[in-house]
Amino acid sequence: MCNVLKVPKSTYYQSFHKVKSSYAIENEVVLARIKIMHAESKGRYGAPKIHYLLTQEKVTFSLNRVQRIMKKAGIRSTIVKKYRPTSSKGQVEERENLLEQDFETTTINEKWVADITYINTLRDGWCYLASVLDLHTKKIVGYSFSKSMTTELVLQALANAIDVQEPKEGLILHTDLGSQYTSDDFEKAVKETKIKQSFSRKGCPYDNACIESFHAILKKEEVYQTSYIDFETARLALFHYIESWYNRKRIHGAINYLTPQQLEDLCRKKAV
């Protein structure tokens, strides 16, 4: 057969002892590390974040190479759907909008955004999470979880944020025009802490897109991945997601691949 094909016998026998190339071996080694990183993020990280973490470990692979390795191994992140806001059709009184979609900041505790989202449980039905986010660090600085969507829910989230962050006078707090945020009790609490209250325009959810975006990430990375038996199960899961994962471990491309807590720590050191 070798004579017919004009192939040396040595080449024929070498074909039975193929040796992996150094390129393929490198890919296998990095794939093992990719699988660990992906598992540690509970499947939440895609190629860009995993590539960044690999570069921190002195792995010089390009992003395209990491993407090819992950695609071949069938590894991908939890897909986050694009945020598509819906406008409110109810009659709502317009209030002052201090933020005006200016989400730029220079340090922590300049601008906060807040909102409420729904979390379903099997036994206790719909429960409600009120969150407060610092626009500079993307950190959830305060939150509260309840079976009722009341003014007390948002007051507790705000009190939590103030206790932890100790903001200075002049902080802007932006919310939508929900009845909880426009209530007399909430307005009183804001004035007592010398916070400037800002409101989204009626029918313009983009005015509060940053906190809406966080809630969308929360739903895709955590809430939609499981079913909560009851209120307490959901409360513990949200606590672990926000405190252990989102604030302290989840890196953000928008803040140079730092975690919200890392950026806050850097800001506090600069202020000393």
Describe the structure.
This protein has 272 residues and is of the alpha/beta class. It contains ten helices and five strands. The chain has helices at residues 2-5, 9-14, 22-40, 47-56, 63-73, 151-165, 184-192, 209-221, 231-246, 260-271, and strands spanning 111-121, 125-134, 140-146, 172-175, 196-199. A five-stranded mixed β-sheet has the order 3-2-1-4-5, with helices on both faces. Helix 4 packs across helix 5. The longest helix is centred in the first third of the chain and has 19 residues, at 22-40. The mean pLDDT is 89.
In short:
With 272 residues, the chain is an alpha/beta fold. Helix content is 42%, strand content 13%.
Topology overview:
Blueprint: H1 2-5, H2 9-14, H3 22-40, H4 47-56, H5 63-73, E1 111-121, E2 125-134, E3 140-146, H6 151-165, E4 172-175, H7 184-192, E5 196-199, H8 209-221, H9 231-246, H10 260-271
Parallel strand pairs: 1-4, 4-5
Antiparallel strand pairs: 1-2, 2-3
Helix pairs in contact: 4-5
